[in-house]
Amino acid sequence: MPETSTTTRRIVILISGRGSNMQALVEACRQQGWPASIAAVIASRPDAAGLEWAAAQGIATAALYHKDYASREAFDAALAAEIDLHAPDYVILAGFMRVLTPGFVNRYSGRLVNIHPSLLPAFPGLHTHAQALATGVRVHGCTVHFVTPVLDHGPIIAQGCVPVLAGDTPEMLAERVLEVEHQAFPTAVRWLAEGRVTLTNDHRVDVQGDPDRLFTWSAAA
Ligand code: GRF
């Protein structure tokens, strides 16, 4: 059971691109006064646009480029070394577009959290919005979950749901899902920062205080 005292938890965020989820986390942490600090933002590519924004906020940044490494294991080892410089309590994958090795995932077991743009277990992997449209589901969304060695799988902390509307393109649906990502993700990471999240023996998640863990998109939001 994590301590819910005044501990300040250290968070490292991993990104691959524009970093709008990372930005939502940083802003919520500051504006809501989480008992946490964003210790670093680390990108899987040097041209990740989010790096510039994070650096402008005074956050430590770093980038590793997978093409500079001979293997997935070598990249993950270098990534872990960079992360460990910041001694994080939690490592948050915010649009981090790389499959991680089991060694990396196990190193951060119980401390590694991802957001995936679908209602898992539906649509793991890429192109989730096109997959949703192709199957005709009427509801789609996002999932914040602990990471296990199985891709886009693991104990669910929170989900956000959006309707699929007539005439939606993958881009329109992605935009709607992103809005609910920006609600569900900061709230779920805040629960982590507050030490309220535990994993149960049957691989489910408990959140102290039993808050609503389903976020629902509304057109007015
Ligand atoms: C988000 O939809 C995230 O769920 C997915 O990729 C997108 C990243 O967006 N994995 P951003 O970089 O956070 O803006």
From TrEMBL:
Pathway per the UniProt entry: Purine metabolism; IMP biosynthesis via de novo pathway; N(2)-formyl-N(1)-(5-phospho-D-ribosyl)glycinamide from N(1)-(5-phospho-D-ribosyl)glycinamide (10-formyl THF route): step 1/1
Top EC group: transferase
Residues that hold N(1)-(5-phospho-beta-D-ribosyl)glycinamide according to the record: G19, S20, N21
EC number, UniProt record: 2.1.2.2
Alphabetized InterPro entries for the sequence: Formyl_transf_N, Formyl_transf_N_sf, GART
Family that this chain belongs to: Belongs to the GART family.
Function: Catalyzes the transfer of a formyl group from 10-formyltetrahydrofolate to 5-phospho-ribosyl-glycinamide (GAR), producing 5-phospho-ribosyl-N-formylglycinamide (FGAR) and tetrahydrofolate.
Name under which the protein is recorded: Phosphoribosylglycinamide formyltransferase
